[in-house]
Design goal:
The protein is of the alpha+beta class. It has a domain of 104 residues: Protein of unknown function (DUF541), domain 2 (Alpha-Beta Plaits). 35% of the residues lie in helices and 37% in strands. It has 5 helices and 9 strands; from the N terminus they run ααββαββαβαββββ. It has a 5-stranded antiparallel β-sheet. β3 and β4 form a beta hairpin. α3 runs antiparallel to α4. The longest helix has 25 residues. The protein is elongated.
Length: 244
């Protein structure tokens, strides 16, 4: 009885192993074999485009002996900055608080051999979207005057508000680039190129010129020149072509 049971268990195990092996062999289109068949190529498409939107990172930084004093200065200056933005055509929906902080300002006391609080600093930073690029320099000048010595402008970044059409153009170029490469490889290998059996697209990217500058009220005597430059929109595809 025990020998019969042992024989049955061995037979079932052998059948299971054979079945699994057969399944692996019968799936040539599976991921494990797919990486080793056909022609794999990568194509890149690039499109140059003029930006239509500027993103400003600006705000107020105030310091006083007390939190209340620092907050009062920052609040008053920020109200003036907000008025300058809206009066120059920036919509409220395009103004967003990016960062707000209240921090102690300390100084090392040699007598006490420890850090002592000498004041408080309030920072209130905004992200501002400027949709009319011709007003970018004017808006910078306006907020510098409004914020005075408390104004901080950390970054100007140019972008395209809706880049969908440019990505479509870049995708067409990427697909064509991949096909050209696959065709050449097939000709050089003396084989016939089949249809794509796998296509993968990486996230597109926009390389953008960035102007980084910190302004103070001293810069308000002259208009701020702004150069938008040109953006490069790129996209990459990976394609696996079958071999006929």
């Amino acid at each position: 009885m025990k020998k019969y049971l042992l024989f049955t268990m061995v037979a079932v195990l052998l059948l299971t192993v054979v079945s699994l092996y057969g399944c692996q062999q019968a799936s040539p289109g599976g991921a494990s074999n797919n990486q080793q068949t056909g022609i794999w190529v990568t194509g890149t498409g690039e499109v140059n485009a003029a930006p239509d939107t500027a993103i400003l990172q600006l705000g107020i930084q105030a310091q006083a002996l007390t939190v209340d004093g620092a907050q009062s200065q920052a609040s008053s200056a920020m109200n003036d900055v907000m008025s300058a933005l809206t009066s120059n055509g920036v919509a409220e929906k395009d103004i967003q608080t990016q960062y707000y902080s209240i921090q102690q300002v300390t100084k090392w006391d040699n007598t006490k051999q420890e850090s002592v609080v000498v004041g408080y600093q309030v920072a209130n930073m905004l992200t501002v979207k400027v949709r009319d690029l011709t007003k970018t320099g004017t808006i910078i000048d306006a907020v510098v005057v409004a914020g005075g010595d408390l104004i901080r402008i950390n970054n100007i970044q140019f972008t395209i508000d809706n880049p969908t059409d440019y990505y479509d153009q870049a995708r067409e170029k990427a697909m064509a680039d991949a096909k050209d490469t696959a065709t050449q490889l097939a000709e050089l290998s003396n084989i016939k190129l089949g249809k794509p059996i796998y296509i993968s697209e990486t996230d597109g990217s926009v390389s953008q010129p960035i102007v980084v500058r910190t302004l103070s009220a001293a810069d308000s005597s002259a208009s701020t020149p702004i150069s938008t430059g040109e953006l490069k929109i790129s996209l990459t595809v990976q394609i696996n072509y079958a071999i006929q």
